[in-house]
């Protein structure tokens, strides 16, 4: 398995609920899973993410309050954003920001992407994107 040089690890309040969300709704695959504590290493289109159930010896530096991950969003490039949007809507998952087009200035000029924002079950903000070609 190839490990990315930087991989976010999210402490989650309910491991199974979060794992189901990331796999069934967003489209991640489980690359590795273990118990004690519940942990999964996930992959999607080159993106990698770790989920670990909150427990006494976890990496907490302060009290975790909902929504978790305030001040950060995780941008994840998905192969077919419209398919993900349909899955989320059919499961009644509320969108933080609906599917829209955004343009960003880069060193190579403007870059466009379709994006939607959704919070995971613990409130972590995900910015799901697909490039506009």
UniProtKB/TrEMBL annotation:
<keyword id="KW-0046">Antibiotic resistance</keyword>
<protein>
    <recommendedName>
        <fullName>Bleomycin resistance protein</fullName>
    </recommendedName>
</protein>
<comment type="similarity">
    <text>Belongs to the bleomycin resistance protein family.</text>
</comment>
<dbReference type="InterPro" id="IPR037523">
    <property type="entry name" value="VOC_core"/>
</dbReference>
<dbReference type="InterPro" id="IPR000335">
    <property type="entry name" value="Bleomycin-R"/>
</dbReference>
<feature type="domain" description="VOC">
    <location>
        <begin position="1"/>
        <end position="131"/>
    </location>
</feature>
<dbReference type="InterPro" id="IPR029068">
    <property type="entry name" value="Glyas_Bleomycin-R_OHBP_Dase"/>
</dbReference>
<dbReference type="GO" id="GO:0046677">
    <property type="term" value="P:response to antibiotic"/>
</dbReference>
